[in-house]
Design a protein that fits this description.
This protein is an alpha/beta fold and about 290 residues long. The protein has 12 helices and 6 strands.
Length: about 290
């Protein structure tokens, strides 16, 4: 029997959720989320979790089923997602739909990662303290020294990515980039990648409108409720960081919203740059 996984990927706000749901209905498949933030139950508005109607349209997995208080890695996602995929195939599914924009998680699912060391709570607290007190630039310089390749290729605007890369270097004595397998692990199912894009002005307008909608839905209040946990890796995230800056009195709310839109556009550009190097992606430009 055919065993195929179709991955719907693309930049933030491009429209992956609705496209994946349509595809899942076509294949009588659930949607397996591949989003490193929507996985956390405490973060709803700022992660653009699918709404109630979308969640009821088809079964979703890896949506708000983990806690921000328990560290979670791409390696764990690889193991849990592969186990779920095998289980769903055994239930009779021939094609499964995966959807998400987390580059490292998608790489982990498709190609696999070497066995990275688990997080060390004491080291993570120290690195988090440095980001808070010295800024992420301090850790970026450490990463540039420890692993120039990772410095060039990961999203160094994302403090959590930088922290994890430095943490792995220090714990393992190996470059973080060496854990990404050059050949990739063999999967016993076919993988098809569909990349969604839109004209840049359309995508940026969708990003701006999504941020405005998040604010109207109560993002500031959600961030305020999470303020005590701001140092957790999950909350080193666009949207929450800007709201925390406002709550700290470092900027006006208008400036925080503007910074959130700018950071989201930068992240979308980073996602597209990352995936444009993958010749296996079939790109579809939506209007």
């Amino acid at each position: 029997m055919e065993r195929r996984v179709v991955i719907v990927l693309g930049p933030t706000a491009v429209g992956k959720t609705q496209y994946a749901i349509s595809l899942a209905k076509e294949y009588s498949s659930p949607v397996i989320s591949c989003d490193s933030r929507q996985i956390f139950r405490e973060m709803t508005i700022g992660t653009a979790v699918p709404d109630a109607s979308q969640l009821s349209a088809v079964k979703h997995y890896f949506i708000q089923d983990h806690s921000i208080h328990v560290p979670y890695t791409a390696g764990q996602y690889e193991m849990e997602a592969l186990s779920l995929i095998e289980d769903l195939f055994s239930q009779g599914h021939a094609t499964l739909v995966v959807s998400g924009g987390s580059m490292f998680y998608i790489d982990a699912l498709c190609r696999g990662l070497d066995n990275m060391p688990d997080a060390d709570p004491d080291l993570r607290r120290e690195l988090t303290r440095r980001i808070r007190e010295e800024g992420v630039e301090s850790l970026r310089m450490d990463l540039k020294r420890l692993d120039p390749e990772a410095y060039r290729t990961i999203d160094i605007a994302n403090p959590q990515r930088v922290l994890r890369a430095v943490e792995v270097c220090l714990l393992s004595g190996r470059p973080f980039s060496s854990f990404k397998l050059s050949e990739g692990k063999k999967r016993d199912f076919e993988i098809r990648k569909i990349g969604l894009s839109r004209p840049r002005d359309v995508l940026y307008d969708r990003i701006n409108r999504r941020v405005d909608a998040m604010m109207e839905a109560g993002l500031l209040e959600e961030a305020r409720s999470l303020l005590a946990y701001r140092d957790l890796p999950a909350l080193q995230t666009v949207g929450y960081k800007e709201m925390f800056a406002y709550l700290d009195g470092k900027c006006t709310l208008e400036e925080a919203v503007r910074d959130m839109k700018t950071a989201t556009r930068r992240y979308a550009k980073k996602q597209l740059t990352w995936w444009k190097r993958d010749p296996d992606i079939e790109w579809i430009e939506l209007p």
